[in-house]
Amino acid sequence: MLLAITTTHRPATDLGYLLHKHPERVHSRRQSYGVAHVFFPEVSEERCTAALFVEVDPVGLVRDRKGTSASAALMDQYVNDRPYAASSLLSAAMADTLGSAMGGRSADRPELVGVPLPLVFSLPTLPCRGGERLLRALFEPLGYEVDARQLPLDERSPSWGASPYFSVQLRTTAPLHLALTHLYVLIPVLDNSKHYWVGEDEVDKLLARGEPWLGTHPQRDLIVRRYLKHRRSLADLAIDRLVVSDGSTAEDAATADGTDAPRGDEQEHRLERSLSLNERRLEAVAAVVESLQASSVIDLGCGEGRLLKQLLPMKGVVRLTGMDVSHRSLQLARERLNLDRQPQMLQDKLSWLHSSLVYRDARFAGYDLATLVEVIEHLDEPRLGMLSRVVFEFARPKAVVVTTPNVDYNARFPALPAGRMRHPDHRFEWTRPQFQAWAQQQADRFGYAVRFEGIGDADAHLGAPTQMAVFTLQP
Ligand code: SAH
């Protein structure tokens, strides 16, 4: 089976760097199901193609398969389409041979990782169970131009009709790692035959690869069910996690539908306007940036970019990154910052990351300061453990700022009915003891010191409306 990846990005040979493969060599790896080769049939500055070619050993597959009953269709085990049809085995080979590229890691071209590149993927034999309509329904919402030709069952016997296989070209302009995750998840979905490797950890794999885009895909439920075929409870678990993990899913979906759902942010900001709490929060965080003399800052869950706008003109800040799981928020942030009209020096400071806080991402590392302003309360509490590891253990900045509402103060908002949270998407709102206990625990576990501050005018009993923790890495 074959997958060819072509780019016309200049220089096109950057593709080799992004795939961690030298274009002049053939890279072969033996797998349990056969051998995977990566090579470059076409290499020039203008155009470069990498091919992933997988030789499947169908007999070996059967030999390694556990629990196959002797009564199972015996011929089927030996005579099947696995050697040539793009299937879950191709995804497995992608993970084995292109894992770093798919994870968005590039030692030689880190600056290219997030850059949309012109890409064409060719799959000469893609099974499309569900036909061309499904093929289009899966890829077009992700921005692909789909070119598909259905293959006959047998070229010599046209009367036998069409096969379920298509020769497919998918064109897009997207960061390579993101496009690879699309293929990784969607190829097995199109194939829809039983995978040999569906297990508990497949939920994590699916979510890890699909997190930034799957939650809002119009075919989300079909994708998850087919991907986790024969394991309904796993599929339900995955859908649950997709729906709850991403604070912006419902909002984004509503916006994409064109329905006029009230924006949660608006509600929150109206509520807090009298205090101009939002500005006080930004000022408080900017003051921390100043006092720590942080020169590089990553704003995790940057939303519409309010903090970035505040930090951008600061002289001491030379590198600034906005990250969010919501595509739409990033778009709005770009508009808010109006970068095209900023001096080049400021434009060069800023970059964007579309990613998620609950999956390890090497691109979060290397900053003086990471900020999480009104973000943690948008995640389900059981997922905070992962967020902590992603931030404190893997990204490991020199300092971290976390702000979150102080729930006790809600009694002072006349417009807020008792017991309601400040934002419809908040999963929890904590008291000061709750927040401080959580923060202290993270600090102890990961080797940080932590101090606390209230933001906004404090009530004598209820405290300040916003609470802030400032973590500093201990030597
Ligand atoms: N920090 C911004 C936005 C706060 S709203 C501000 O103060 O204005 C919370 C933000 O967290 C939203 O933009 C939401 O998209 C983002 N978010 C929610 N879950 C996330 C996740 N798992 N990974 C990254 N960002 C997430």
From TrEMBL:
Enzyme Commission (EC) number: 2.1.1.386
Hen1 N-terminal domain span: 1-242
Magnesium recorded as keyword: yes
Organism: Ideonella alba
Stated family: Belongs to the methyltransferase superfamily. HEN1 family.
Any single biological process term in GO: regulatory ncRNA-mediated gene silencing
Protein name per Swiss-Prot or TrEMBL: Small RNA 2'-O-methyltransferase
Catalytic activity: small RNA 3'-end nucleotide + S-adenosyl-L-methionine = small RNA 3'-end 2'-O-methylnucleotide + S-adenosyl-L-homocysteine + H(+)
InterPro entries the UniProt entry points to: 3'-RNA_MeTfrase_Hen1_bac (IPR024026), Hen1 (IPR026610), Hen1_N (IPR024740), Hen1_N_sf (IPR038546), Methyltransf_12 (IPR013217), SAM-dependent_MTases_sf (IPR029063)
